[in-house]
Design goal:
The structure holds two protein chains of two kinds. Chain A is an all-alpha fold. Chain A has helices at 2-45, 63-69, 72-104, 111-119, 126-137, 143-151, 163-188, 192-200, 205-216, 218-233, 237-242, 256-265, 270-299, and strands at 48-50, 57-59. The relative contact order of chain A is 0.12. The chains are: A mainly alpha, B mainly alpha.
Protein backbone atom coordinates (compact mmCIF):
# COMPACT_ATOMS: atom_id res chain seq x y z
CA UNK A 1 0.00 0.00 0.00
CA UNK A 2 2.92 2.35 0.71
CA UNK A 3 4.10 2.54 -2.88
CA UNK A 4 0.93 3.98 -4.50
CA UNK A 5 0.58 6.52 -1.68
CA UNK A 6 4.08 7.90 -2.27
CA UNK A 7 3.33 7.96 -5.97
CA UNK A 8 0.06 9.78 -5.32
CA UNK A 9 1.87 12.33 -3.18
CA UNK A 10 4.44 12.96 -5.89
CA UNK A 11 1.71 13.55 -8.44
CA UNK A 12 -0.07 15.93 -6.11
CA UNK A 13 3.12 17.91 -5.61
CA UNK A 14 3.78 18.11 -9.34
CA UNK A 15 0.25 19.36 -9.96
CA UNK A 16 0.66 21.82 -7.15
CA UNK A 17 3.85 23.20 -8.65
CA UNK A 18 2.14 24.71 -11.67
CA UNK A 19 -0.98 25.78 -9.76
CA UNK A 20 1.09 28.18 -7.62
CA UNK A 21 1.43 30.54 -10.59
CA UNK A 22 -2.33 30.77 -10.79
CA UNK A 23 -2.37 32.72 -7.53
CA UNK A 24 0.72 34.83 -8.16
CA UNK A 25 0.17 35.72 -11.82
CA UNK A 26 -2.56 38.39 -11.40
CA UNK A 27 -0.44 40.29 -8.91
CA UNK A 28 2.64 40.04 -11.11
CA UNK A 29 0.74 41.28 -14.16
CA UNK A 30 -0.36 44.45 -12.37
CA UNK A 31 3.08 44.75 -10.81
CA UNK A 32 4.75 44.65 -14.21
CA UNK A 33 2.40 47.33 -15.53
CA UNK A 34 2.83 49.66 -12.55
CA UNK A 35 6.37 49.03 -11.34
CA UNK A 36 8.50 47.72 -14.15
CA UNK A 37 6.93 49.66 -17.03
CA UNK A 38 7.23 53.12 -15.39
CA UNK A 39 10.82 52.44 -14.32
CA UNK A 40 11.70 51.41 -17.85
CA UNK A 41 9.88 54.42 -19.27
CA UNK A 42 11.66 56.78 -16.87
CA UNK A 43 15.03 55.34 -17.86
CA UNK A 44 14.14 55.83 -21.52
CA UNK A 45 12.96 59.42 -20.97
CA UNK A 46 16.07 60.33 -19.03
CA UNK A 47 18.23 59.73 -22.10
CA UNK A 48 16.51 62.46 -24.11
CA UNK A 49 16.14 66.20 -23.90
CA UNK A 50 13.14 68.26 -25.02
CA UNK A 51 14.11 71.06 -27.39
CA UNK A 52 12.27 74.19 -26.38
CA UNK A 53 12.67 76.12 -29.60
CA UNK A 54 12.88 73.51 -32.33
CA UNK A 55 10.52 70.99 -30.77
CA UNK A 56 11.09 67.28 -30.69
CA UNK A 57 13.38 65.13 -28.61
CA UNK A 58 17.12 64.78 -28.88
CA UNK A 59 19.08 61.82 -27.64
CA UNK A 60 21.62 63.07 -25.10
CA UNK A 61 22.84 59.83 -23.55
CA UNK A 62 23.84 60.48 -19.97
CA UNK A 63 23.78 64.25 -20.47
CA UNK A 64 20.83 64.77 -18.14
CA UNK A 65 22.60 62.80 -15.42
CA UNK A 66 25.73 64.90 -15.77
CA UNK A 67 23.59 68.05 -15.49
CA UNK A 68 21.67 66.76 -12.49
CA UNK A 69 24.74 65.78 -10.51
CA UNK A 70 26.04 69.35 -10.72
CA UNK A 71 22.62 71.00 -10.32
CA UNK A 72 22.86 73.29 -7.29
CA UNK A 73 19.10 73.10 -6.70
CA UNK A 74 19.07 69.32 -6.62
CA UNK A 75 22.15 69.20 -4.38
CA UNK A 76 20.57 71.67 -1.97
CA UNK A 77 17.34 69.68 -1.85
CA UNK A 78 19.17 66.36 -1.41
CA UNK A 79 21.33 67.81 1.37
CA UNK A 80 18.19 69.05 3.11
CA UNK A 81 16.47 65.65 3.16
CA UNK A 82 19.75 64.07 4.26
CA UNK A 83 19.93 66.39 7.29
CA UNK A 84 16.27 65.65 7.92
CA UNK A 85 16.93 61.92 7.74
CA UNK A 86 19.93 62.02 10.08
CA UNK A 87 18.05 63.96 12.78
CA UNK A 88 14.33 63.23 12.46
CA UNK A 89 14.41 59.48 11.78
CA UNK A 90 16.57 58.43 14.78
CA UNK A 91 14.55 60.69 17.09
CA UNK A 92 11.27 59.25 15.87
CA UNK A 93 12.45 55.63 16.02
CA UNK A 94 13.91 55.98 19.53
CA UNK A 95 10.62 57.54 20.71
CA UNK A 96 8.67 54.72 19.04
CA UNK A 97 10.96 52.09 20.55
CA UNK A 98 10.68 53.50 24.08
CA UNK A 99 6.90 53.69 23.74
CA UNK A 100 6.72 50.09 22.49
CA UNK A 101 8.90 48.86 25.37
CA UNK A 102 6.78 50.78 27.88
CA UNK A 103 3.51 49.40 26.49
CA UNK A 104 4.93 45.87 26.37
CA UNK A 105 6.40 46.07 29.90
CA UNK A 106 3.15 45.22 31.76
CA UNK A 107 4.03 48.07 34.14
CA UNK A 108 1.88 50.66 32.39
CA UNK A 109 -1.67 51.52 33.44
CA UNK A 110 -4.18 51.32 30.56
CA UNK A 111 -1.54 50.04 28.11
CA UNK A 112 -4.15 49.17 25.46
CA UNK A 113 -5.48 52.71 25.45
CA UNK A 114 -1.97 54.16 25.04
CA UNK A 115 -1.27 51.79 22.17
CA UNK A 116 -4.39 52.74 20.28
CA UNK A 117 -4.27 56.50 20.85
CA UNK A 118 -0.58 56.90 20.01
CA UNK A 119 -1.25 55.01 16.79
CA UNK A 120 -4.23 57.22 15.82
CA UNK A 121 -2.33 59.92 13.87
CA UNK A 122 -1.48 57.25 11.31
CA UNK A 123 -5.15 57.25 10.33
CA UNK A 124 -5.07 61.02 9.79
CA UNK A 125 -4.39 61.99 6.16
CA UNK A 126 -1.07 63.78 5.73
CA UNK A 127 -2.97 66.71 4.23
CA UNK A 128 -5.11 67.09 7.35
CA UNK A 129 -2.09 66.66 9.63
CA UNK A 130 -0.28 69.47 7.82
CA UNK A 131 -3.36 71.70 7.84
CA UNK A 132 -3.79 71.17 11.60
CA UNK A 133 -0.16 71.75 12.47
CA UNK A 134 0.02 74.61 10.00
CA UNK A 135 -2.79 76.38 11.88
CA UNK A 136 -1.24 75.48 15.25
CA UNK A 137 2.09 76.93 14.16
CA UNK A 138 0.55 80.13 12.85
CA UNK A 139 0.16 83.26 14.91
CA UNK A 140 -3.25 84.05 13.45
CA UNK A 141 -5.34 81.54 15.37
CA UNK A 142 -2.81 78.89 16.27
CA UNK A 143 -1.31 77.78 19.53
CA UNK A 144 1.95 79.54 18.68
CA UNK A 145 0.06 82.84 18.60
CA UNK A 146 -1.83 82.00 21.79
CA UNK A 147 1.40 81.12 23.59
CA UNK A 148 3.03 84.32 22.39
CA UNK A 149 0.10 86.33 23.77
CA UNK A 150 0.05 84.39 27.03
CA UNK A 151 3.76 84.12 27.78
CA UNK A 152 5.14 87.04 25.81
CA UNK A 153 7.30 84.70 23.71
CA UNK A 154 8.00 85.20 20.03
CA UNK A 155 7.53 81.75 18.51
CA UNK A 156 7.31 81.66 14.74
CA UNK A 157 7.65 78.01 13.74
CA UNK A 158 6.96 78.81 10.09
CA UNK A 159 9.88 81.14 9.60
CA UNK A 160 13.58 80.85 8.91
CA UNK A 161 15.51 77.96 10.36
CA UNK A 162 12.44 76.77 12.27
CA UNK A 163 10.77 75.50 9.12
CA UNK A 164 12.66 72.21 8.88
CA UNK A 165 12.13 71.29 12.57
CA UNK A 166 8.47 72.28 12.13
CA UNK A 167 8.16 69.80 9.26
CA UNK A 168 10.10 67.18 11.25
CA UNK A 169 7.61 67.54 14.07
CA UNK A 170 4.66 66.92 11.74
CA UNK A 171 6.30 63.84 10.25
CA UNK A 172 7.18 62.52 13.71
CA UNK A 173 3.64 63.10 14.93
CA UNK A 174 2.22 61.22 11.93
CA UNK A 175 4.45 58.15 12.01
CA UNK A 176 5.79 57.57 15.52
CA UNK A 177 2.70 55.53 16.46
CA UNK A 178 2.89 53.36 13.35
CA UNK A 179 6.53 52.52 14.08
CA UNK A 180 5.67 51.92 17.72
CA UNK A 181 3.09 49.37 16.62
CA UNK A 182 5.55 47.52 14.38
CA UNK A 183 8.01 47.30 17.30
CA UNK A 184 5.24 46.25 19.63
CA UNK A 185 4.10 43.47 17.24
CA UNK A 186 7.65 42.13 17.15
CA UNK A 187 7.87 42.23 20.95
CA UNK A 188 4.62 40.26 21.25
CA UNK A 189 6.19 37.36 19.38
CA UNK A 190 8.83 36.72 22.07
CA UNK A 191 7.83 33.53 23.90
CA UNK A 192 6.84 34.10 27.54
CA UNK A 193 9.17 31.26 28.70
CA UNK A 194 12.19 33.31 27.68
CA UNK A 195 11.26 35.97 30.23
CA UNK A 196 10.61 33.39 32.92
CA UNK A 197 13.97 31.74 32.32
CA UNK A 198 15.70 35.12 32.46
CA UNK A 199 13.88 36.06 35.67
CA UNK A 200 14.94 32.78 37.30
CA UNK A 201 18.53 33.58 36.31
CA UNK A 202 18.09 36.85 38.19
CA UNK A 203 17.90 39.27 35.25
CA UNK A 204 16.24 42.62 35.96
CA UNK A 205 13.91 44.46 33.53
CA UNK A 206 16.73 46.54 31.99
CA UNK A 207 18.84 43.46 31.38
CA UNK A 208 15.88 41.59 29.91
CA UNK A 209 15.27 44.52 27.58
CA UNK A 210 18.89 44.55 26.43
CA UNK A 211 19.52 40.82 26.19
CA UNK A 212 16.16 39.57 24.91
CA UNK A 213 13.95 42.37 23.60
CA UNK A 214 16.37 44.48 21.59
CA UNK A 215 17.85 41.53 19.64
CA UNK A 216 14.31 40.37 18.85
CA UNK A 217 13.55 43.81 17.41
CA UNK A 218 16.40 43.85 14.91
CA UNK A 219 14.30 42.70 11.95
CA UNK A 220 11.54 45.18 12.71
CA UNK A 221 14.15 47.92 13.06
CA UNK A 222 15.51 47.18 9.58
CA UNK A 223 12.02 47.30 8.08
CA UNK A 224 10.95 50.58 9.72
CA UNK A 225 14.31 52.21 8.93
CA UNK A 226 13.95 51.28 5.27
CA UNK A 227 10.43 52.69 5.18
CA UNK A 228 11.67 55.82 6.93
CA UNK A 229 14.45 56.31 4.37
CA UNK A 230 11.96 55.97 1.55
CA UNK A 231 9.52 58.32 3.30
CA UNK A 232 12.16 60.95 3.98
CA UNK A 233 13.65 60.96 0.51
CA UNK A 234 10.14 61.25 -0.94
CA UNK A 235 9.18 64.11 1.38
CA UNK A 236 6.53 66.08 -0.49
CA UNK A 237 3.11 66.50 1.14
CA UNK A 238 4.23 68.44 4.19
CA UNK A 239 6.44 71.07 2.53
CA UNK A 240 4.17 71.35 -0.50
CA UNK A 241 1.09 72.13 1.58
CA UNK A 242 2.98 74.39 4.01
CA UNK A 243 4.15 76.34 0.98
CA UNK A 244 0.79 78.03 0.74
CA UNK A 245 1.32 79.33 4.31
CA UNK A 246 4.97 80.28 3.90
CA UNK A 247 5.75 80.72 0.19
CA UNK A 248 8.95 82.64 0.90
CA UNK A 249 10.44 79.97 3.15
CA UNK A 250 9.68 76.94 1.01
CA UNK A 251 11.14 77.02 -2.48
CA UNK A 252 9.88 74.97 -5.41
CA UNK A 253 12.97 72.79 -4.94
CA UNK A 254 12.75 72.42 -1.17
CA UNK A 255 12.95 68.62 -1.42
CA UNK A 256 14.06 66.48 -4.39
CA UNK A 257 10.51 65.23 -4.83
CA UNK A 258 9.09 68.77 -4.93
CA UNK A 259 11.78 69.61 -7.46
CA UNK A 260 10.85 66.64 -9.66
CA UNK A 261 7.16 67.54 -9.35
CA UNK A 262 7.68 71.18 -10.25
CA UNK A 263 9.99 70.33 -13.15
CA UNK A 264 7.21 68.19 -14.62
CA UNK A 265 4.08 70.08 -13.84
CA UNK A 266 5.23 73.68 -13.80
CA UNK A 267 8.21 73.44 -16.16
CA UNK A 268 7.19 70.67 -18.58
CA UNK A 269 10.75 69.34 -18.31
CA UNK A 270 9.70 65.72 -18.22
CA UNK A 271 13.04 64.18 -19.18
CA UNK A 272 14.98 66.09 -16.59
CA UNK A 273 12.31 65.36 -14.00
CA UNK A 274 12.59 61.65 -14.75
CA UNK A 275 16.37 61.92 -14.36
CA UNK A 276 16.02 63.53 -10.94
CA UNK A 277 13.51 60.86 -9.90
CA UNK A 278 15.84 58.06 -11.01
CA UNK A 279 18.85 59.50 -9.20
CA UNK A 280 16.87 59.80 -5.98
CA UNK A 281 15.41 56.32 -6.52
CA UNK A 282 18.85 54.77 -7.00
CA UNK A 283 20.21 56.61 -3.97
CA UNK A 284 17.31 55.47 -1.78
CA UNK A 285 17.39 51.90 -3.01
CA UNK A 286 21.17 51.73 -2.49
CA UNK A 287 20.92 52.89 1.12
CA UNK A 288 17.96 50.58 1.77
CA UNK A 289 19.83 47.66 0.21
CA UNK A 290 22.99 48.15 2.28
CA UNK A 291 20.86 48.43 5.39
CA UNK A 292 18.95 45.28 4.52
CA UNK A 293 22.18 43.35 3.96
CA UNK A 294 23.72 44.51 7.20
CA UNK A 295 20.51 43.96 9.12
CA UNK A 296 19.91 40.44 7.86
CA UNK A 297 23.55 39.45 8.28
CA UNK A 298 23.46 40.48 11.91
CA UNK A 299 20.11 38.82 12.46
CA UNK A 300 21.37 35.47 11.20
CA UNK B 1 5.07 37.02 38.53
CA UNK B 2 3.07 40.04 37.38
CA UNK B 3 5.12 43.23 37.77
CA UNK B 4 3.54 46.14 39.61
CA UNK B 5 2.12 49.03 37.60
CA UNK B 6 4.33 52.07 37.61
CA UNK B 7 2.73 55.53 38.05
CA UNK B 8 5.98 57.18 36.93
CA UNK B 9 6.03 55.29 33.63
CA UNK B 10 2.34 56.00 33.12
CA UNK B 11 3.00 59.70 33.80
CA UNK B 12 5.80 59.88 31.24
CA UNK B 13 3.65 58.12 28.67
CA UNK B 14 0.82 60.54 29.44
CA UNK B 15 3.02 63.37 28.12
CA UNK B 16 3.38 61.40 24.89
CA UNK B 17 -0.39 60.96 24.83
CA UNK B 18 -0.94 64.71 25.20
CA UNK B 19 1.44 65.41 22.32
CA UNK B 20 -0.57 62.98 20.18
CA UNK B 21 -3.91 64.46 21.15
CA UNK B 22 -3.22 68.22 21.08
CA UNK B 23 -3.80 68.71 17.32
CA UNK B 24 -6.85 66.43 17.33
CA UNK B 25 -8.44 68.16 20.31
CA UNK B 26 -7.65 71.53 18.76
CA UNK B 27 -9.38 70.37 15.56
CA UNK B 28 -12.41 69.20 17.52
CA UNK B 29 -12.69 72.50 19.41
CA UNK B 30 -12.07 74.60 16.31
CA UNK B 31 -14.77 72.80 14.34
CA UNK B 32 -17.31 74.21 16.81
CA UNK B 33 -16.31 77.83 16.14
CA UNK B 34 -17.47 80.38 13.63
CA UNK B 35 -14.86 81.98 11.40
CA UNK B 36 -14.87 85.12 13.60
CA UNK B 37 -14.43 83.12 16.82
CA UNK B 38 -11.53 81.20 15.26
CA UNK B 39 -9.54 84.40 14.98
CA UNK B 40 -10.69 86.09 18.17
CA UNK B 41 -10.50 83.25 20.72
CA UNK B 42 -7.55 81.13 21.85
CA UNK B 43 -7.13 77.64 20.39
CA UNK B 44 -8.07 75.83 23.59
CA UNK B 45 -11.18 77.96 24.34
CA UNK B 46 -14.66 77.43 22.99
CA UNK B 47 -16.02 80.23 20.82
CA UNK B 48 -18.90 82.56 21.72
CA UNK B 49 -21.24 80.67 19.41
CA UNK B 50 -21.40 76.89 19.22
CA UNK B 51 -21.28 76.51 15.46
CA UNK B 52 -20.45 72.83 14.93
CA UNK B 53 -23.76 71.98 13.29
CA UNK B 54 -23.90 75.06 11.09
CA UNK B 55 -20.26 74.42 10.10
CA UNK B 56 -21.10 70.84 9.12
CA UNK B 57 -24.13 71.99 7.17
CA UNK B 58 -22.11 74.67 5.42
CA UNK B 59 -19.27 72.22 4.62
CA UNK B 60 -21.70 69.76 3.04
CA UNK B 61 -23.56 72.36 1.00
CA UNK B 62 -20.77 74.75 -0.04
CA UNK B 63 -20.53 75.02 -3.86
CA UNK B 64 -23.47 72.69 -4.54
CA UNK B 65 -22.20 70.05 -2.12
CA UNK B 66 -18.84 69.40 -3.76
CA UNK B 67 -17.60 68.02 -0.44
CA UNK B 68 -20.11 65.17 -0.59
CA UNK B 69 -18.96 64.48 -4.12
CA UNK B 70 -15.38 64.19 -2.80
CA UNK B 71 -16.58 61.81 -0.07
CA UNK B 72 -18.19 59.66 -2.75
CA UNK B 73 -15.04 59.72 -4.90
CA UNK B 74 -12.86 58.79 -1.95
CA UNK B 75 -15.15 55.86 -1.09
CA UNK B 76 -15.09 54.68 -4.70
CA UNK B 77 -11.28 54.83 -4.87
CA UNK B 78 -11.03 53.05 -1.53
CA UNK B 79 -13.42 50.24 -2.42
CA UNK B 80 -11.90 49.55 -5.84
CA UNK B 81 -8.27 50.36 -5.00
CA UNK B 82 -7.84 48.93 -1.52
CA UNK B 83 -10.28 46.08 -2.20
CA UNK B 84 -8.50 45.09 -5.40
CA UNK B 85 -5.06 45.44 -3.85
CA UNK B 86 -6.08 43.22 -0.94
CA UNK B 87 -7.48 40.56 -3.26
CA UNK B 88 -4.34 40.50 -5.41
CA UNK B 89 -2.00 40.51 -2.41
CA UNK B 90 -3.97 37.77 -0.66
CA UNK B 91 -3.93 35.40 -3.62
CA UNK B 92 -0.25 36.05 -4.37
CA UNK B 93 0.87 35.88 -0.74
CA UNK B 94 -0.97 32.59 -0.30
CA UNK B 95 0.47 31.24 -3.54
CA UNK B 96 4.01 32.10 -2.54
CA UNK B 97 3.61 30.67 0.96
CA UNK B 98 1.94 27.40 0.07
CA UNK B 99 3.29 26.30 -3.31
CA UNK B 100 6.82 25.38 -4.35
CA UNK B 101 7.05 26.36 -7.98
CA UNK B 102 9.92 27.29 -10.27
CA UNK B 103 10.70 31.00 -10.28
CA UNK B 104 9.44 31.49 -6.76
CA UNK B 105 12.78 32.82 -5.55
CA UNK B 106 12.95 35.24 -8.46
CA UNK B 107 9.55 36.61 -7.52
CA UNK B 108 10.78 37.03 -3.96
CA UNK B 109 13.87 38.97 -5.04
CA UNK B 110 11.80 41.17 -7.33
CA UNK B 111 9.43 42.07 -4.52
CA UNK B 112 12.15 42.82 -1.99
CA UNK B 113 13.79 45.05 -4.55
CA UNK B 114 10.54 46.81 -5.33
CA UNK B 115 9.89 47.69 -1.68
CA UNK B 116 13.10 49.73 -1.80
CA UNK B 117 12.05 51.62 -4.94
CA UNK B 118 10.61 54.94 -3.84
CA UNK B 119 7.33 56.15 -5.32
CA UNK B 120 9.12 59.29 -6.44
CA UNK B 121 10.87 57.38 -9.16
CA UNK B 122 7.50 56.03 -10.30
CA UNK B 123 5.05 58.89 -10.00
CA UNK B 124 6.11 61.10 -12.88
CA UNK B 125 6.72 58.28 -15.40
CA UNK B 126 3.44 56.66 -14.35
CA UNK B 127 1.71 59.96 -15.02
CA UNK B 128 3.30 60.22 -18.47
CA UNK B 129 2.43 56.62 -19.28
CA UNK B 130 -1.17 57.09 -18.20
CA UNK B 131 -1.35 60.35 -20.03
CA UNK B 132 -0.29 58.72 -23.31
CA UNK B 133 -2.94 56.03 -22.72
CA UNK B 134 -5.57 58.71 -22.10
CA UNK B 135 -6.13 57.51 -18.55
CA UNK B 136 -5.27 60.69 -16.65
CA UNK B 137 -8.24 62.56 -15.28
CA UNK B 138 -10.26 59.35 -14.95
CA UNK B 139 -10.96 57.26 -11.88
CA UNK B 140 -8.64 54.56 -13.27
CA UNK B 141 -5.66 56.86 -12.82
CA UNK B 142 -6.25 56.55 -9.07
CA UNK B 143 -7.59 53.02 -8.83
CA UNK B 144 -5.07 51.13 -10.98
CA UNK B 145 -1.86 52.37 -9.29
CA UNK B 146 -3.44 51.58 -5.91
CA UNK B 147 -3.76 47.91 -6.86
CA UNK B 148 -0.18 46.93 -6.12
CA UNK B 149 0.78 46.48 -2.50
CA UNK B 150 4.11 44.66 -2.09
CA UNK B 151 3.95 45.17 1.65
CA UNK B 152 0.44 43.70 1.80
CA UNK B 153 1.67 40.67 -0.12
CA UNK B 154 4.57 40.34 2.30
CA UNK B 155 2.23 40.43 5.32
CA UNK B 156 -0.12 37.81 3.84
CA UNK B 157 2.81 35.62 2.88
CA UNK B 158 4.18 35.57 6.43
CA UNK B 159 0.69 35.17 7.83
CA UNK B 160 -0.22 32.27 5.52
CA UNK B 161 3.00 30.46 6.41
CA UNK B 162 1.93 30.51 10.04
CA UNK B 163 -1.84 30.27 9.92
CA UNK B 164 -2.59 27.77 7.12
CA UNK B 165 -1.28 24.29 7.94
CA UNK B 166 0.04 22.37 4.94
CA UNK B 167 -1.58 19.16 6.26
CA UNK B 168 -5.02 20.75 6.01
CA UNK B 169 -4.44 21.60 2.34
CA UNK B 170 -3.22 18.08 1.61
CA UNK B 171 -6.20 16.55 3.37
CA UNK B 172 -8.50 18.66 1.21
CA UNK B 173 -6.60 17.58 -1.93
CA UNK B 174 -6.95 13.94 -1.03
CA UNK B 175 -10.67 14.57 -0.63
CA UNK B 176 -10.58 15.71 -4.23
CA UNK B 177 -10.99 19.46 -3.84
CA UNK B 178 -9.42 21.69 -6.51
CA UNK B 179 -6.84 24.34 -5.67
CA UNK B 180 -9.20 27.29 -6.17
CA UNK B 181 -11.87 25.62 -4.07
CA UNK B 182 -9.37 24.92 -1.29
CA UNK B 183 -8.32 28.56 -1.37
CA UNK B 184 -11.85 29.95 -1.20
CA UNK B 185 -13.30 27.51 1.33
CA UNK B 186 -10.37 26.57 3.59
CA UNK B 187 -7.59 29.14 3.33
CA UNK B 188 -9.57 32.39 3.16
CA UNK B 189 -11.23 31.69 6.50
CA UNK B 190 -7.89 31.04 8.20
CA UNK B 191 -6.34 34.09 6.60
CA UNK B 192 -9.11 36.46 7.73
CA UNK B 193 -7.19 38.44 10.40
CA UNK B 194 -4.27 38.90 8.01
CA UNK B 195 -6.64 40.01 5.24
CA UNK B 196 -8.38 42.53 7.50
CA UNK B 197 -5.00 43.98 8.46
CA UNK B 198 -3.90 44.37 4.85
CA UNK B 199 -7.30 45.76 3.88
CA UNK B 200 -7.22 48.30 6.69
CA UNK B 201 -3.75 49.54 5.82
CA UNK B 202 -4.82 49.63 2.18
CA UNK B 203 -7.91 51.68 3.06
CA UNK B 204 -5.79 54.15 5.01
CA UNK B 205 -3.31 54.32 2.15
CA UNK B 206 -5.92 55.14 -0.49
CA UNK B 207 -8.07 57.34 1.77
CA UNK B 208 -5.02 59.43 2.70
CA UNK B 209 -3.36 59.44 -0.72
CA UNK B 210 -2.55 62.94 -1.88
CA UNK B 211 0.38 62.90 -4.28
CA UNK B 212 -1.11 60.52 -6.84
CA UNK B 213 -4.49 62.25 -7.27
CA UNK B 214 -2.74 65.62 -7.19
CA UNK B 215 -0.73 64.79 -10.29
CA UNK B 216 -3.32 62.61 -12.05
CA UNK B 217 -6.49 64.69 -11.71
CA UNK B 218 -7.27 68.20 -12.89
CA UNK B 219 -11.06 67.96 -12.68
CA UNK B 220 -12.35 69.00 -9.20
CA UNK B 221 -15.34 66.69 -9.70
CA UNK B 222 -12.95 63.71 -9.51
CA UNK B 223 -10.95 64.87 -6.49
CA UNK B 224 -10.75 62.77 -3.36
CA UNK B 225 -11.13 64.52 0.00
CA UNK B 226 -7.41 65.15 0.50
CA UNK B 227 -6.89 67.12 -2.71
CA UNK B 228 -10.21 68.91 -2.28
CA UNK B 229 -9.35 70.03 1.24
CA UNK B 230 -5.92 71.30 0.23
CA UNK B 231 -7.55 73.29 -2.59
CA UNK B 232 -9.95 74.87 -0.09
CA UNK B 233 -7.01 75.69 2.11
CA UNK B 234 -5.12 77.35 -0.75
CA UNK B 235 -8.20 79.31 -1.68
CA UNK B 236 -8.19 80.71 1.87
CA UNK B 237 -4.70 82.17 1.46
CA UNK B 238 -3.76 83.75 -1.92
CA UNK B 239 -4.68 87.08 -3.45
CA UNK B 240 -8.41 87.87 -3.68
CA UNK B 241 -8.85 85.13 -1.09
CA UNK B 242 -12.20 83.77 -0.06
CA UNK B 243 -11.24 82.45 3.37
CA UNK B 244 -13.23 79.44 4.47
CA UNK B 245 -11.10 78.38 7.41
CA UNK B 246 -14.10 77.03 9.27
CA UNK B 247 -14.93 74.77 6.31
CA UNK B 248 -11.34 73.54 5.95
CA UNK B 249 -11.31 72.67 9.65
CA UNK B 250 -14.73 71.05 9.74
CA UNK B 251 -14.00 69.19 6.50
CA UNK B 252 -10.75 67.90 8.00
CA UNK B 253 -12.63 66.62 11.02
CA UNK B 254 -15.21 64.90 8.81
CA UNK B 255 -12.36 63.31 6.83
CA UNK B 256 -10.64 61.67 9.78
CA UNK B 257 -13.64 60.57 11.85
CA UNK B 258 -14.66 57.58 9.65
CA UNK B 259 -11.15 56.09 9.67
CA UNK B 260 -10.77 56.49 13.41
CA UNK B 261 -14.11 54.74 13.94
CA UNK B 262 -13.09 51.86 11.65
CA UNK B 263 -9.79 51.45 13.51
CA UNK B 264 -11.54 51.33 16.87
CA UNK B 265 -14.20 48.88 15.71
CA UNK B 266 -11.79 46.45 14.08
CA UNK B 267 -9.06 46.90 16.68
CA UNK B 268 -8.92 43.36 18.03
CA UNK B 269 -8.90 41.91 14.54
CA UNK B 270 -6.21 43.94 12.81
CA UNK B 271 -3.88 43.98 15.78
CA UNK B 272 -3.88 40.20 15.93
CA UNK B 273 -3.17 40.11 12.19
CA UNK B 274 -0.26 42.48 12.58
CA UNK B 275 1.20 40.61 15.53
CA UNK B 276 1.16 37.35 13.63
CA UNK B 277 2.73 39.21 10.71
CA UNK B 278 5.63 40.09 12.98
CA UNK B 279 6.40 36.48 13.83
CA UNK B 280 9.09 35.83 11.30
CA UNK B 281 10.66 39.22 11.67
Amino acid sequence: MAQPLVHERGRLLARQESKGWLFVAPFLAVFALLFLAPIGYALYLSLFREQTFFGGNVFVGLGNYADALSDAKLLEAAARVLVFFVIQVPLMLVLALLAALAIDSARLHAAGMFRLVIFLPYAVPGVVAVLMWGYLYGDKFGLAGDLNNLLGTALHPLSGSWMLPAIANIVTWEFVGYNMLVFYSALRTIPEELYEAAAIDGAGPIRIARAIKLPALRGALVIVTIFSIIGTFQLFNEPNILRSLAPNEITTFYTPNMYAYNLSFAGQEFSYSATVAIIMGVLTAAIAYVLQLRGSREAL
Amino acid sequence: MKPRKSPLLTGVMAIFLIYTLVPLVWLLISATKTQDDLVSTAGWELGDTFALFSNVRETLTYRDGIFLRWVGNTLLYVVLGAGGATALATAAGYGLAKYRFRGRRAVFALLLGSIAVPGTALAVPTFLMFSSMGLTNTIWAIVVPSLVSPFGLYLIWIYATEAVPQELLEAARIDGAGEIRIFTTVALRLLAPGIVTVLLFGVVGVWNNYFLPLIMLSEPDLYPLTVGLSQWSKQAAGVGADPIYNLVITGSLLTIVPLIIVFFLLQRYWQSGLTAGGVKQ
